[in-house]
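Structure first, sequence second, as always.
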């Protein structure tokens, strides 16, 4: 069995007569095919950046409200939620923010997983072209579609998170 580096070089120089990598049409097709997952990786990176920022802001808001709750409860140990409208509002906001943070977390997980599937898609494309493994075609399409479905799921979580964020602002405005 030849050393691994010789196998890799033989794969790189491998081409069938009808699949010559020097053919401009074939090379352009390969480059174009490999661009789609790359563009999706970049798009998901931007979505992740935005969601990570929102997630951080919501977690910080939870910490601030939780501290406010502790101060309210510490000042009057026997105080009930019904006795203090601000404490009631804080508790309600904390509950809503917890759900909002879960939606944001789920969106981040979906976007991160979609990046992994788009990277797999690029790897499968490279292996099928350079390695001549035609059986990877279905796997390539499947990994790309799973990545797209994960992006869709992430977008749905972001939509639910936006609705939840609006409800939290309405709660805060009602009590002021």
């Amino acid at each position: 069995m030849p050393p691994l580096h010789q196998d890799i070089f033989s794969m790189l120089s491998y081409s069938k007569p009808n699949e010559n990598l020097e053919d401009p049409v074939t090379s352009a097709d390969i480059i174009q095919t490999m661009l789609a997952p790359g563009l999706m990786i970049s798009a998901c990176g931007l979505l992740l950046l935005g969601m990570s920022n929102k997630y951080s802001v919501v977690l910080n808001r939870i910490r601030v409200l939780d501290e406010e709750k502790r101060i309210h409860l510490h000042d009057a140990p026997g105080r009930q939620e019904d006795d203090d409208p601000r404490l009631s509002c804080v508790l309600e906001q904390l509950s809503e923010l917890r759900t909002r943070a879960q939606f944001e977390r789920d969106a981040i997980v979906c976007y991160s997983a979609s990046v992994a599937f788009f990277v797999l898609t690029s790897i499968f494309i490279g292996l099928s072209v350079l390695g001549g493994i035609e059986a990877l075609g279905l796997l390539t399409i499947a990994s790309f579609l799973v990545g797209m479905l994960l992006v869709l799921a992430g977008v749905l979580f972001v939509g639910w998170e936006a609705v939840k964020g609006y409800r939290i602002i309405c709660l805060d405005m009602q009590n002021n």
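Margin note: Residues 24-75 form the longest helix (52 residues).
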